[in-house]
Amino acid sequence: MPRIAGTDIPEHKKVVYSLRSVFGVGKKVAQEVVAQAKIDPDTRARDLTSEEINKIQRILEKYPLEGDLRRMVSDNVQRLKRIKSYRGLRHSMGLPVRGQRTKVNSRTVRGGGRRTVGSVSKEAAASAAAK
Predict the structure, then answer these.
(1) pLDDT tens digits for 19-69?
(2) Is 14 helix (H, G, I), strand (E, B) or coil?
(3) In the chain, how many domains are there?
(4) Which domain holds residue 78?
């Protein structure tokens, strides 16, 4: 299993798709890296030579990846919280940050799981009345 940027990439996938398992490498960056390294995009990751893996490593050093990128994102969120911006407060409360509605959606964030709203079944109404 090839190891790139401290991450084991899936060997059964094509190179372009397996590079996307590295945090910070998306579709566009993966395509650019494969093009710059002059590797056939249809090549499977297990078929990469050590020379090709080294080429990919050198190209990816230009991008913030994995730990550095996670640290940057974390620092940005901490800065928003520290200056008490609206987005920072939403982050600290664990609510949607980018303007999504919360009245009907975001159940996973707000908690509550699956709750029946509206009419109640006869069995549930009878058990509630008995209590």
Answers:
(1) 999 999 999 999 999 999 999 999 999 999 999 999 999 999 999 998 899
(2) strand
(3) 2
(4) 67-102
Label residue 12 exposed, middle or buried (CB < 10 Å: 0-12, 13-18, 19+). Answer: exposed
DSSP-based three-state secondary structure for 7: strand
- 19 within 8 A of 10, measured Cβ to Cβ: no
How many Å apart are CA 129 and CA 103, to the nearest integer?
Answer: 28
56 and 23 part of one domain: yes
Residue ranges of alpha helices (H) inside 43-83 are 50-60, 66-82
Cβ pair 44, 15 in contact under 8 A: yes
The answer to whether the pTM exceeds 0.90 is no
What confidence tens digit (pLDDT) does each residue in 73-121 have?
999 999 999 999 999 999 999 899 998 888 888 777 777 666 665 666 7
- Element at 110 (helix H, strand E): helix 107-110
Q: What dihedral do alpha carbons 112, 113, 114, 115 form, nearest 10°?
A: 0
